[in-house]
Structure formats: C-alpha cells, structure tokens
Amino acid sequence: MSSALAGIKVIDVSQVAAVPMAARHLADFGADVLHIENPKTGDSWRVYQAGQETGRAGAPSEINYNWENFNRNKRSVTIDISQKGGQDVIYKFVETADVFLTNLRPFELERYNMQYETLSKLNPRLIYAALTGFGKKGPERDAPAYDATAYWTRSGIPHMLTRRGMSQPGFRPAFGDNLAGLALAYGVMTSLYVREKTGKGQEVDLALLHAGLYQLGFDVAGALATGLDFEDWWDEPPAEVVAAVEAAFVPLRAFYRSKAHNPLAGYYRTKDRRIIVFVALQPDRYWGKFCRAIGREDLENDPRFNTIEGREENNAILYPILDEAFAKKTLGEWKPLLEGIPYAVHQNMREVINDPQARANDFFVAYDHPTHGRLEVLANPVMLSETPATIRMAAPEVGQHTEEVLLEYGYTWEDIAQFKDKGIIA
C-alpha cells in the first residue's frame, strides 16, 4: 500500500516544536521531510527532555522519547543558513520541493533571504508555510514567543480556567505547539489540494496566539458578541474566603519553587495584582536584560545568580527579591520595560478581543447576520494567501435549507410535500 503523500518533498527549516510537529504529520503520511539543523548546535529540542544533557523537562530517560515524538520519519541535514553558501543549498532544495516549512521570525526570514517572495520565484508551485508567535504584522511581529506565552497565557486560557482565589493551572511543554502543528499541516494539505486544481503554490500563515484563541473559541465568541468577561456575570466569592485560600497556598507555592531550576520561567504578580508569565528557556541569554528591566542591575553579575546553576541553587533567596521587584509597578508600567523578553500577561476576555496584535493580524472578522446585524467572530487561524477562508453565510436555522437541498438532488415539490406529511422532514 502506497503512502498518502509519497513523492511529496518537504524542506523543514525550523526547530523546537510546533513546525517540526507539522512536518512530522506530513512525514507520517509518507512525505520526504528534510529537517534542516544548525551544524554546530543542531535543533535545541534535542536536549530539552530530562536526561538529555541540559534538559530538565519530562520523565528522566536516556531514551530521547521527546525528540522521537516530534521528528520521526524525517531525514536530518546540517546547513548553516546564516552563510550565503548555506542559503544557496536551501535554494537548490526548494527548486524541486513541494513544501517549505519554517518558524523563523519575520526579521530572520529577511536576514537569511528566505521570505515567501524570494522562494516562490524559484518555485511557483511551492507551498510556503510559516508559523509565528503573534502574527507576521503589527508591532510584535518579531517578538520572541513560546506556546506557553503566545498560545496559552496571552490568549486568555489560564484566565478562563481560574476563578478568583484559585491557584493558576499548570502548563505542559508543547501543549499549544501540538495543536498549532496540526493546524499548520492542515493548511499545507489544503494548499496542496488547491495546487492539484490550479498548478499554483501559495503561502500558509499561522500564529500561536491565533491558535490559542481558536482553542478558546467558545469564550472568544461570547466576548466578541457581548463585550463581557466572565467576571462581569459570575458571582465573586467573599474577600475573606479568597484571602484565606491564597494564604494557605503560600507554603505549597514555596515548596514547588524550591524545586524549580529557572526563575525566568514562572509567574509574578504586579502591584495591581496582574500576573506576568516568563518563559525564557535560554535564561543566560536574557538574564542581564531581565535584571536591567526590573531595576536590579546589581543582580546581573552577582555570583549567586549569574549562572543557571547559581539561580537554581539560590532560588530561595532570589524568588523573594523578584517578587518584591514586580510588586512595585503596575502592569502598564512593566510592559514597556519588558520588551524583548519572552513573557505574556494573563489577559481577560475583554483584553483578548482588543489585543492590538490580534487586531493587526485580522484574527477577528465581521459579517452581516440576517437577524443580529453586523457580527464579529473569530477568523479561521489557517490563513492562505491565494484561497483564504471566507464567511459566506451565517449558521443556519434548523432545517433552513431542507427544501433547497432536496430540489438540488432531484426531488420534486410533490415529493417534498409527501415527506412533510409522513414526518420525514420538518
């Protein structure tokens, strides 16, 4: 039995999780996927799992099960895409490829000359699928993003899973990446189908933030229709009950923090009690900038904290320092200071539907509803450049199109009348 995608060639210029998972889905169905890795470092996902050199996540094992899960059925090719010679090799691959996948940020695509406009000239039949954190337009198009920040936190998921006084829900690695990878693969498959009919390739665009909004679609739809957050219509518990619960949770949070290895991957409360979540999986890269942002330059070269190992060993000292720092400013005061550091805010539904980055990237779309007038809804997260998703009609009333469809299938009005008499149709 032949594979569904036998003969399809895929160039996968990505690392970590979401796009590699999209490529894995294509590979599972028979596509020949070339996973491009840096000659010196490889894909950083190789060492994220506990037991794999510096990795700390998941069950410890010498078996790199995490890497296997995201990258089976692929071939690995090492190419330095920062060099012109490396870019020329990618161009050679692209000339005969069917699909190009990437999660390079827009400024990186420009730096390495791998924009859609460049590659599509080499191969007009190419399906070019790119995933970003917050969309390829808007002020945060190049901001660092992870699924824990862009997909999970900023989309409003933890806010909607938490009631006042409750502890914040935990998060698991690649939780949003898996959904986004599946959606990106769906976009590629749709585009391949279009190419079979037209002979032309196109660009597939997907953002982690948009995928998070899609996953929370029930609540996003409600907020768009009403402008309300659940706090506007849920009963709040008595303040003294909330205070008692929060006080009881303090020792447990301290225990979990004592086991944490990276204070730059966790949450802190601001002066106005908003929650800021940091996901700096390369903490040494951001440590200096982080210290300057919070006004504690003295911590940057403090021997207790200036290494990953030091911060882990001395986290009982460091966490209270960071808690105190974040409690001194409001969220509005913190936002401009934290630019360029991977973080996100627990947004409520009103903030989500007015998120400037979501608006800049057309995550919401309006149409005329026959009953309710102009109605705004969540757009399809899979955005295709040539054959985009559209809204052609409102959701139907029960049985609204019964007669229309039966006539299309050759039934007569006499047949329809008999069906009604017998209760076969309404």
Structure in words:
34% of the residues are buried. It is globular, with a radius of gyration of 25 Å. It is an alpha/beta fold. It is built from 19 helices and 12 strands. It has 3 domains: 9-215, Rossmann fold (3-Layer(aba) Sandwich); 260-347, formyl-coa transferase, domain 3 (2-Layer Sandwich), CATH 3.30.1540.10; 396-426, no CATH class. A 7-stranded mixed β-sheet has the order 3-2-1-4-5-6-12, with helices on both faces. It has helices at 18-28, 65-71, 84-95, 106-111, 116-122, 147-153, 157-160, 175-198, 208-215, 217-226, 239-258, 283-293, 308-313, 315-326, 331-334, 349-353, 356-360, 402-408, 413-421; strands at 9-13, 32-37, 74-78, 99-102, 127-132, 203-207, 265-269, 275-279, 343-345, 364-369, 373-378, 383-384. The model has no long low-confidence stretch (mean pLDDT 93).
Topology:
Layout: E1 9-13, H1 18-28, E2 32-37, H2 65-71, E3 74-78, H3 84-95, E4 99-102, H4 106-111, H5 116-122, E5 127-132, H6 147-153, H7 157-160, H8 175-198, E6 203-207, H9 208-215, H10 217-226, H11 239-258, E7 265-269, E8 275-279, H12 283-293, H13 308-313, H14 315-326, H15 331-334, E9 343-345, H16 349-353, H17 356-360, E10 364-369, E11 373-378, E12 383-384, H18 402-408, H19 413-421
Parallel strand pairs: 1-2, 1-4, 2-3, 4-5, 5-6
Antiparallel strand pairs: 6-12, 7-8, 8-9, 10-11
